[in-house]
Amino acid sequence: QVQLVESGGGLVQAGGSLRLSCAVSGRIFSINDMAWYRQAPGKQRELVATITSGGKTNYADAVKGRFTISRDNAKNTVYLEMNSPKPEDTAVYYCNAVVQPTIVRITTLYWGQGTQVTVSS
Hints:
Elements: E1 2-7, E2 10-13, E3 17-26, E4 30-39, E5 46-51, E6 57-59, E7 67-72, E8 77-83, E9 91-100, E10 108-111, E11 115-120
Parallel strand pairs: 2-11
Antiparallel strand pairs: 1-3, 3-8, 4-5, 4-9, 5-6, 7-8, 9-10, 9-11
């Protein structure tokens, strides 16, 4: 079984910084794309950033220039560095990963359980 566990969430002041981590564990042959999403109260889940296995990144316009996604393939971990967060960035942040558990199995999208980020003004 594959598990994703996020950490690093909490309360941060606007203009500060926070780093989220998401570690993938379990049966892993390879990990392809990884991503961060977020969901604010009363809103749909939205994409924040993605990163390919080769390190190519993509960002939502709302966070471009402030957030940085990165990954450590040796640790099967993806990070989200949040710089200069704003109150509107308050949400539950979820990571996901496209994982191939074994060489003979197809890839599957897995999600973490989410971590709360609250940005105070």
